[in-house]
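Narrative summary of target 7.
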Amino acid sequence: MTHTNIAASTDQPILLISDLHLAPQRPATIELALHYLKHARGVSALFILGDLFEYWLGDDAIDPAMQPTIDALHAVSQSGTAVYLMHGNRDFLLGEQFAKQIGATLLREDETVFHMNNHAVTLLHGDTLCTDDHGYQQLRAMLRAPAWQADFLGKTVPERIEMAAQLREKSREAVADKSLEIMDVNALAVNAAFEQHGAPLMIHGHTHRPYDHAGDQRRLVLGDWHDDHAMVARFDGEQFVLERFEKA
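Modeled conformation, tokenized:
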């Protein structure tokens, strides 16, 4: 587990987002994201906690429709903002080539502890906490296996597109038969993560259930992005807040 120190100030806050699920089929959400990324230029850091994209077929198979987003991310890092990128359950094939292209640091570990102005925070996508969803966890283990990824990336782009479509269809069918409770975090898994890392604050996405679970051990859940708004987090150097972002 990595521990990293990072500073923030009131003038240059730290921003945290997740679950944008950007895809050519969602132009309004892309427009909202581009607006947010312009707003993120010059801040201390921007953390993207997984599922920046709805799918990712490999760093060598970038959809041209995503180029404006890539350019906007690069502009953020060029402004002096430290950009950190974490894998989600949809874009787990994001690699070092893409991270270098946008000037980001790729966080490969499932859970990472950052110390922000002496505030210890555990950052993660959140899917590892959903341990009641046994089918998903089995699929996750398969998709994260180096052998499976090497085999997938060794195929032609059309073959990858076909495989990805089949996986998404199976996922939709599986989700349709699951209760909302099964797809949410497991309380024991959350407690175990708090105990393991020792940080009193945890921030994640994945569940699409934005909420500030306050207490001695606080859990901030980021929201998924819509055409007109998103629930994001901000650290102003003193406190973390969950807030709604809209295009003015």
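Helices lie at 27-39, 67-78, 96-102, 134-144, 146-153, 157-176, 187-197.
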